[in-house]
């Protein structure tokens, strides 16, 4: 699915500063304030319900953004799942618990399918008032956020030029800032897992977005 439409290629800028760290792209946003206020748990709202609702929203938005660049994220162009360099490559754990290197589009397809399965599982994400959330619900959401962060990091490092061609940088930057702010608020992503985007996260902090 191509959410924004258009057909654009990718540019190779080996060794160059990532586009998402260059002005005016880095500061492009749909909002100017911090996402802290809309991330915190509202009064009288169950914390698990809040996590569930936001996890669903973030999944849907990230899925749409990957759909907008998916025709350029191919097994030939993105031979491994990474976030900017060979030092930040991700392996998939298969059904035999083996760590395997697979192309980025296949990795992301697995991530999205796995998350969708969890979201559809009533024992994990219950939709009926009389069904309790599982005791390990926070850990499950944390695992989902870790994988969704990898998808975002891959889009930024490998396909941000396409995002620019689609004039969608403000939308993606806004989503990322909200995602990171929410993840921090509920301890959903470890600091080491955010390392591939650390420089941009610092910039967002300086801008007062997170």
UniProtKB/TrEMBL annotation:
Transmembrane segments: none
Annotated InterPro entries: MOB_kinase_act_fam, MOB_kinase_act_sf
Name recorded for this polypeptide: Maintenance of ploidy protein mob2
Organism of derivation: Polyrhizophydium stewartii
Primary gene name: MOB2
